[in-house]
Fold each of these.
Amino acid sequence: MKLVIAGKGGSGKTSISGTLARVLARQGRRVLAIDADSNPNLSLTLGIPSERFNSVPTLPSNLLQRTSEGVQLSKTLDEIRSSHSLEGPDGVNLLVMAHPQHAGTG
Amino acid sequence: MHATVRSVIEVASEGPADVCILDTEASPEHLSRGTAMYAEAMLLVVEPYFKSLETGRRMAALGVDLGLPRVVLVANKIRDERDLAAVRQFAEQHSLEIAGVIPFDPALNDAERAEIAPIDHDPESPMVLAVTEIARTFVDGGK
């Protein structure tokens, strides 16, 4: 199941996203959490310390490949998981779209 | 960059046990650029005051326009019956479903200050229990 969680800044959406991810992982689901906020802080509500969070490479835009079928990812999701995600408590994988210092460059 | 997010979401969660959760910006630009396009459901977190509810309503309309099968509200930081009544009334007026009600939880500020995840700070807190309920009724029931 793919869920989008959105809301005004300060609405608590990131606390809810992180907690929902952890709860679902504890129930035995394989959870991929994606932080697509320009001020990413999902890692904290998932329980991943900021030092670890800052060490993960963000997703490069060359992941996308133009084919006759349209635009496709050049790697499988498992490859992306292992190269560009952090594994947090309860086995939740976090994919980071942009670090604060790089915000706006992507 | 948004095209990348979009493609990742598109291929994410292949199996029935897979869940992909996208935490995204509240702005209509983000949603309309199609970041959310491949999702099956959109949860809009709203607080019980007009500006927040109005943002939620606008984004819900966008979600529906994007063709998302389920667009729902989650009422957050609810302190009392009056707060809940305000969200319920708004939801009813605009024919929106409320998928969950999360009580105001002052302990969340402590967790944030200590840089501890809410679920690690207090796994039995009202907020964590309410989110667990959403996982049970919405995610499991909505499969």
Amino acid sequence: MRIGELPNLIQKMRSTLSGKPERRKGRVRESLVSGLKRGETVLEARGITKRFPGVVANDHIDFDIKAGEIHAVLGENGAGKTTLMNILFGILRPDEGGIYVRGRKVEFKSPLDAIDLGIGMVHQHRKLILAHTALENIVLGHPETGKIPDMRRAEEEVGKLCRKYGFKIDLNARVWQLSAGEQQLVEILKALYRGAKLLILDEPTSVLTPLETERFLKSLRAMARGELAIVPFITHKLPEVLGVSDRVTILRKGKVMKRLETRKATMKALARHMVGREVLFRLKKPKVKIGKEVLRVENLSALSDKGILALKGVSFSIREGEIFGIAGISGNGQHELAEALAGLRKAEGGKILFRGKDITRASVLQRLKMGIGYIPSERVEVGTIREFSLVDNIAMNLYFDKEYFKWGFLDRGKIREHAKKAILEFDVMAPNIDTKAAHLSGGNLQKLILARVVPRTSRLLIANLPTHGLDVGATEFVRNRLMACKKEGIGILLISEDLDEVLQMSDRIAPIYEGKFVGIVPAKKARKESIGAMMAGAPLEKTRKREGSR
Amino acid sequence: MWSFIARSLEITTIFLLASIGELLNQRGGVLNVGIEGLMLLGAASGFLTALWSGSILLGFVVGTIVGGIFGLLHGFFSITLKVDQVVSGMGIWIFAMGFTTYWADSYSGPLPKGLSPPGIGGYLSPIFFLAVALVLIVWFLLSKTHLGLKIRSVGENPSAAEATGINVARTRYLCVVVGGLSGGLAGAFLSLDYFGIWGHLLTGGMGWIALALVLFSLWRPFILFAGALIFGFVWQFSISPEAIAPGLGIPLGIIRMFPFIVTIIVLVVISTPKFRRKWGLAKPAALGEPYIKE
Amino acid sequence: MRLPRLKLEKVVALKGWGAAKVSIYSIITAFIIFSAFLLWEGANPIEAYRHIFSFAFDPRLGLVSTLHRSMFLLFATLAFILPLKAGLWNIGMEGQFYLGTVGAFAVAYAWGDLPSGALIPLMLIAAALFGAGYGVIAGFLRGKLGVNEIVVTLMLNLTAFWLIQFLIVGGPWAGIGECRSRPLPDSAVAPEIGGLPFTVFLAIAISVIFFILFTRSKVGYQIRSFGSNPSAARHVGMSPFKISVLVMAVAGAIAGLSAYHMWAGDPRFYMIPQPEAYKSIGDLTYWGIMVGLLCLLNPLAAIPVSIFVGALKVGGPVLIRRMKLPFGLDLLFLGILFLSFVAFQFFYRYRIKRVKEKR
């Protein structure tokens, strides 16, 4: 800290108190976006370049979107999608290049400028206030909402919008009660109510069930018919979104790889442009002899954090060397299942048998000592302790072992040795083993968690969203390690939102929907479409019938 | 009997003033555990002002303003400097403990005769009605106005609120200053009206009970009002039990413990699983977390 | 003129020398502000500090007092540090101290005719047990039901104050006149080692034990894990309930022990004085919060800092008398120091950096 920094501190305080001076009173500049005709270019981005230390996130990107058009932007994680999206919405400013709205050059000092110009964004992680009603969220912060908002009139106006685009939603419900798809509608309505004519969508279908996706795509088409311009940014679920888009732009490593009209595109070509090589990577599944039963679950139920029954009686078993995959959209009970098996959540009903013993009432510590390992889904909040060094993080699974903690004291030498070996084996990249976990990237954090859990797991591994949010390299590493565990005869429960991952890695697959298994399907017999349908609730028999009739 | 009720209501007034400000604070997401400190400062400055200037009204005004200043300070620490809100609140409290002892303890004693606070029917102060009005105003503000909606949003999800154009920092500063003002007024009322005397650490824990009251109230002004009434009664009862139950014969020390034990009991009750859920849902989601702009 | 844009860069919990610098800066700032007050009162700050420290550290004058008070403060600090390492705010040292008083005195009054060799250990055990029990209330409620321990410990403080009042003002332990308790039997008085009551060394020993415990023991590891990330700790089988209860029990025990140190270790007491006096001792425990935070929860660092603060506490009244300053000046310093420290907290987490504007 230097004393010279003090005047800046005062300036900071002053600017905080006076509010953002650059913000204009937000009335949508009607002159700029009114009277848009179908096919007219709403927004054009020319030569957008943005650099971060060590990487060029966007490299001279050109992009344009016309009214009434759906123009999708495709790209892997790290291709520059997020940066481009943030620039278009005013969260970031480009180093080079410019944005032109209806031919006029504009500069966004903050997202509010973008909103004023009729650009709306729907975020992947909802920016909604869960405790408020949908209507309150829509109305919040709107410059034309009076001191005492007239909620009835707002409801009417929003209702009109809903009818226009075919949205079905209860405006007076609290947002936390709404499904992911409905929450997304609220965000869209919020943008539309604010006068948006251009909508940027961030991974709009990633958390929707197939049924919700269908409905959503229908709404998109309705919105496009109404002269709105829509730009969805997506990574997966290519077929669905491409089905409704007019044009698609593919980004890779910050550059525009290709831009085509969708009717001229094929799936394979798109994937190739996205990744630069044959995408469909087939995981080498080792030939493993499946042994005796390690885990048997009978009619297990558990409550969610809100106190509602989220897991409603599931039964299954896992054997040594077997990967049992649970496919489902988040929020259908799989998280509660994972925690109940790990001992972190009370079983409301049912039994858990581990190698024949009833462990339903066993504590987390007892289960850890039995050789059950748990890889939690949140690596930063829960899976690691960011203030601790790598060594201390690994010690998290050692502290209860007399080998490493004699007479209540740490055996520093032994712990460090174990940590060194584990960090090496699991390829955790860090300056040294005393580096704090906070300095690690996402991929390395996940590897750290594996290094902590896997060597201490001898029988059963529960992997909760192990590749969630990781880049390709880390994902591959994690999957290979899980396969290695399989070879060692460890039974694995794999929970994943990535259907391809589940299909490729599991020996048996159980789609979960609203707390129940829709069925348990051996991998050989599993088809992506039918599993996907089951994830959305379609019962086992119906899908079989559908396949048979083909 | 009437005197007991009047005194009870005076304590209720103090609790109300101290806690309604904190309720507003917390709805905006800022936790201020230093209410006791705000009250001490308001009480000391109000008392000394009245003593030196001869005007009780001026005493009230100064006490309130001093409270507002320290509310602002807490805001500066928590909002701009993003210091841990608990640490900041405790800092205000411990500072108040030290400062008021140094400043006012040498003047310990009653206000000179002739300086008497206004009262209706000679007993009930108009400030009681001010406190009740404040409850109504805060209720109306939070549930019916756009500003109230903004405040609630800032307390639930500041980044979402910011995305809609709300200035989170400004909104929180507003709440924290109002909280400070009403805390200061509560303290001034204590020293000038209820007691008319200054003594070492005059507030004796009331600020902490006010904090607990906000937690009990599930952040709803009307429940807070009910709580303040109950605790006003309990507190006054612990001071003069003979007015209600003469001949109870419980020694002074023991009966003075009542309000604190009752507070603990109520805290425990609302933490049981049954109430837990309701409480968790009512709690402003971002309470106590500094907001960091992305 | 365009003012440079600032960027807040998050630092991961500043440790070691960098963090110590922050504490030192806040102490210096507090001194500067306090000196301003002194000047305003018409006193020369340099002279004032000279008065304070020359008295406090002079073996013929204040040294024994200084060390005695410092160790009392050390007890309170340790009782604050331990729970905070686990993430719990123990503000209840005052109440735990009072309960320790109750325990020690109860034993002393009941079995006063026992020889010192038997009585004193019993008093210590009772003081520790009573303090521990009081701490456990908050620890249990927090561990089992998640009740906020700040409010609970505070309520318990206030309750305990009245408990002592009940006992000594016209109550079962009342002494002759003036709201004091009966004196302690002679056998209860703390024996001295090198002119200091043995409890001084007890405090230092506990401090060293804590340090070793935190860095090298299994329990210390669990406490630290819990303090850094309670969810992660839960995920590897650590029990929030057990840890809450454990730390609060031990903290309460330590604060309870401080009661024996205070009343049986200082010849001016050997009894419980009237409410104003025992309250002012109780108020001292809040310094424990300050010292604990300043030392960044390091029990060894707490020793010199406690001595420093003890010197201020002992030298302060002397200063007040000699230079005719208002009463309570030392409490004022505490308050200023705390605020200054809070302000400097900012630099624990963030560095202010100028953003280089690219044109």
Amino acid sequence: MHIPDGFLDARTAATAAALSIGGLGLAVRRARVQLPARKVPLMGLAAAFVFAGQMLNFPVAGGTSGHLVGGVLCGVLLGPSAAVLVISCVLIVQCLAFGDGGVLALGANIFNMAIVSAVGGYAIYRGLHRIFPGERGRLLAVAVASWAATVAAAVVCAGQLALSGTAPWSVTLPAMAWVHMLIGVGEAIITTLVVASIARSRPELLDAARPAPSRGAELLLFGGLIALGLALFVAPFASALPDGLDHAATLLGFAARERHVLAKAPLAEYHLPGVQSPALATALAGGIGTVLMFAIAWAMARLLVRAERNGPQPTEAPGA
Amino acid sequence: MHKHLLDSYGHLDSPVHRRPAWLKVIAALATVILLVVSPPSVILFAAVALILLIVAAISRVPAVFLIKRLVLLEPFVLGVAVLTLFQPHGGVRFLVVATRSTLCLFTLVLLANTTPFSDLLDVLKRARVPSLMVTTLALMFRYLFVLKDESARMRAAHASRTFTADRRHTWHATASVLGQLFVRCGLRADRIYAAMCARGWK
């Protein structure tokens, strides 16, 4: 989901950068208060862990392979502020040292993956874990949160692309959402397996992210930031009538594109007869997907926790 | 996928490498901003491409390496660019966006391979990025390679002890490697902290 440079217009990139700087400032301030000095090196190591973890591919159907993204995993293991810091650092290194993801798009990438995905995922995890306590509940919460956070980040990303005039919302939303509903399943499974493996060998590490006294305020602040991002990037399209779309494109596109859009607007509407329906269909699919994901998560939690009770897994801790 | 991403020519010696890092960062940023903000024109794209090629030639970073790196990252650009096809005049937009994005990518790849990462960190520090972040970035970059090797060793150890390549087991194995890697990260972080304190950190 790394947006390369050249896909976001200056306005969208600047807005996303402002939101990210706000989020990062908040994360650094919170982390300074919450983290004892001896935990500072852990931030760097965790970031290196996410980076190295993303290089471990595992086979998915049809010769393709997937890898961990790690946003929700970091949220669960380290807590929201530290996760924002860690994932942002991963994105910065990927961009500056390896050219993966754009430098102007860095703000948008940090907002989508470090803030929406990691903090949003952590919030969903906490909420669900409170409803479903116990070891199984934890795994269920992790699986659903990983999936939902991946999809949420993709939807915000689709909004940013549409707002930039790169492609219409009726294209970006279904494309991003559908692809990431599938990617999200992989992310959910691998994140759950990793959390289950850590819970088996070092359960005390999972309690490191227990709610600190100030965590409610922290989540509220991040929540406000995410809501602001949704209002800016997604809400303009939520009532995605064709003229609303054109209006947004005209308002936000820059000169050359503006002319283009104005001249071609009627044509564009004819080319997209059911602008509303793809968005509606995607929303519907999202709902069905959530239900399905709950089922998968429940089955996984049952399977993994029962397996643990009956003795160790056949493939445990290789090379340990 | 990221395998080749870990090589870098940041430590070569050339007129480009000798320029101060902040200058290169500002130049790269200016190039990207220019590409993104200005209306698409063939002349601009050609001019930027020419300048980048000249810089690449002076920097003595092997052309084969640069091409490989671009080919490796180009799928991500094209993957997003495909979205622009589904609209009127999609073909033209696709070409514009793909060209613009590729030039930005080339700029970033050149910056990364003409500037050591520690110099980039220095620029960030001077730009008043919070020290907690700079420390995290520095440690991350330092241990990236260590952890990559460690996970490769763990995978090799696992492969040498198992005879099945069943898909379900591969997922389980990857997950245990990741879980174990995280646990070891925690232990290593504690040792690093002790070492840092012993050397008078803070």
Amino acid sequence: MLTNGETYVSATGHFPLVNVTPVLQLSVHVKGNALSDLYISIHHPSMGSPAQGKGDDLAERGPIRIGEVFVTGQAALLSWAPPAELASAYPL
Amino acid sequence: MADDEKVHRPRFFDRIHRNNRHRRHQYPVILIAFTALAAFLYALPFWVKFHEQFQSLSQAVADALVVAVVVSLAVEPRLLRYFGEELKSFGEQLGTQTFWSSFYSRAPRIYIDAIKALAEAEQFTIASNWVVSFDWVDAEKTVIKLSVEHANHRENRSSKDFAVVTRSFIYESPFGQYKSQLRSHAVLCEAIEFLAICLRMDALKWYGKEVAYCEFIPPRIRKFHSLKFPQELVSQC
């Protein structure tokens, strides 16, 4: 099944990537001209944050494989925010 | 492992790792015990005089223990890894993972059970590939156009139909001037050379026992379409 959709979001947000059938593998590929201004993080229930960093860096990695074989389905959360906002929320 | 990852790790996986650690600790203890017992049996005739038959018996048991320890240390891991590599050609990492977790005696029990359950599953997703594109809409960089492409590759190994259930969604846009939309939803089945472009949710239905029907109603045409396929072909979708 091939699904294609689009929506409009603010500079900070998240999007769930969900499969409810048994899944052998899941991959995420990020791209776009806004990535240079964003910090991307992919969260997985069993792996914590297997991929996170500057948007451009993640885009260069191509499709990023998340998780392993999952019998009860597979889910990951893609979240993003501008680096400046993260710096103010989590000061060093 | 970083501290923040520990915090987020669920109890389920903590239990797996605890069991795994426990098994790993057991394994060297058993090997050391076997080695010590073999050494004891070898040395026993020097201390105590037994009947010749008993001496040969203890010698044979000691030999067997040494062979078991050597096989366990040197041969078994290499053999298992060799078969695991062989299986890679069939299903890449899946074959290896399934093999290791099913036959590797020290794999966590929970993981073995999970892989067995997967082996029994006849309808599953082979790969779920997401491509998410972030593009600025305005020069002020306040609104992002989020484009989501999802390819769900499925496989049906049972004689039953694999229901096409559309669970795809897209967030509603909070910006009035920009509307979200599900641009396309397509079902492609190579086995029957069938491609349905469903532009409306719930437009696709499968039903029937002897013969299955696929119905889809493109909203622009508003005309009912019905396609009829033999059951054995539909079951492959």
